[in-house]
């Protein structure tokens, strides 16, 4: 499964979803879905904007983890 680390990154940088929305022009609903890890898909453009704004790599924003269910 893919885990999104947006909530952790925002916490570390003391940013709010509204800050990211203003800084990236990405719609709040998309950012919130990533923040809450409920997003089912993400556009590459959105990933690029988030990484640029947060000054992070794709690997820092997303990571693959093993499913707990077996």
How would you name the oligomeric state of the polypeptide chains in this document? single chain
Query: How much of the sequence is in beta strands?
Result: 5-15%
Number of structural domains: 1
> Low-confidence spans: pLDDT under 50, at least 5 residues?
none
Helix content: 55-70%
Give me the strand/helix succession: EHHHHHE
CATH topology: 434 Repressor (Amino-terminal Domain)
| Order of strands, widest sheet | 1-2
Number of helical stretches of at least 4 residues = 5
Molecular shape = globular
* N- and C-termini, Cα separation: 12 Å
Chain-averaged pLDDT: 96
CATH class membership = Mainly Alpha
Report the structural category.
Answer: mainly alpha
> Mind telling me the CATH superfamily name?
lambda repressor-like DNA-binding domains
CATH architecture title: Orthogonal Bundle
Describe the structure.
There is one protein chain. This protein has 70 residues and is mainly alpha-helical. It has helices at residues 6-13, 17-24, 28-35, 44-54, 58-61, and strands at 2-4, 62-64. The chain has a two-stranded antiparallel sheet. The chain is globular. The chain starts with a strand and ends in a 6-residue tail after the last strand. The mean pLDDT is 96.
């Amino acid at each position: 499964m893919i885990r999104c680390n947006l909530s952790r990154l925002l916490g570390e940088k003391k940013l709010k979803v509204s800050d990211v929305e203003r800084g990236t022009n990405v719609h709040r609903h998309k950012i919130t879905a990533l923040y809450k890890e409920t997003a089912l898909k993400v556009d590459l453009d959105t990933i690029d904007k988030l990484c640029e704004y947060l000054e992070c790599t794709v690997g820092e924003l997303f990571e693959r983890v093993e499913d707990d269910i077996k």
